[in-house]
Amino acid sequence: MAEQLAGLADDRALLGRTSTAERVSDILRSRIAEGYFPPGTRLSEDSIGGALGVSRNTLREAFRLLTHERLLVHELNRGVFVRVLTVEDVEDIYRTRALVECAVVRGLGESAYALDGLRASVTEGQVAAVESDWKGLGTANFHFHRELVALAGSARTDELMRSVFAELRLAFHLVDEPRRLHEPYLQRNRQILQALEAQDAQEAERLLAVYLADSSERVLEAYRRRVEGESAP
């Protein structure tokens, strides 16, 4: 926990002179997504508030916002914890992804798209794979899907999927098989990008639908195995 709190102290500059619960929640959301606070971790109000230099009331409001986003859970008389997803949660996350991401690509039509963000995320993934940085590859993969959703040009969709992706990363942190989970999809990201570069949204949607179905099966298999293993006597 000391290392995580030191990292939070470095984030104090992000709060600026007008600290708000929204800014604190942004910082904590990022740290949770990056794995600084793994699923099941109890978040200490005193320690985190001291590291960020914010009041107890501000921190509690940030906790409330992240609880609403399903990243944290409050347990009576025990405190606030980073949420541990159920298998059903992971299934629902993938259903949501398929509905939203495929709809975004379907709505692109045959017009030209701004693909610089997608290209950058594919390059990021290639570099991570060369360096055998499998967690970095996972991050690049999330960046790819974030940029894909951003093609819709909808702030509401971006906000929705930001929370969905953050939840999914909770599952990935618990499984802890980053190479197995992420390496197979680097080439698929490239193929989706190539279809969009050719302005073939229909083919990109087909590739994406198969991609998400395969990813769901792979992640659920690994997550179910981990959860059932931990619950075994």
Plain-language structure description:
With 233 residues, the chain is mainly α. The chain contains 11 helices and 3 strands, in the order ααβααββααααααα. It has helices at residues 2-10, 21-33, 45-52, 56-68, 87-106, 116-130, 134-150, 155-175, 178-182, 186-197, 201-231, and strands at 42-43, 72-75, 79-82. Strands 1-3-2 form a 3-stranded antiparallel beta sheet. A hairpin with a 3-residue loop joins strand 2 and strand 3. The mean pLDDT is 89.
Approximately what portion of the residues adopt beta-strand conformation? under 5%
Unreliable segments of 5+ consecutive residues: none
Strand order of the largest sheet: 1-3-2
Level of helix content?
over 70%
Helix and strand sequence: HHEHHEEHHHHHHH
Summing up helix and strand content along with how strands pair, one would put the structural category as mainly alpha
Oligomer: single chain
Ends apart, CA distance between termini: 28 Å
Anisotropy-based shape: globular
Overall pLDDT score: 89
How many individual β-strands?
3
How many distinct helices?
11
Rounded to the nearest angstrom, the radius of gyration is 19 Å
State the major sheet. Answer: 3 strands, antiparallel
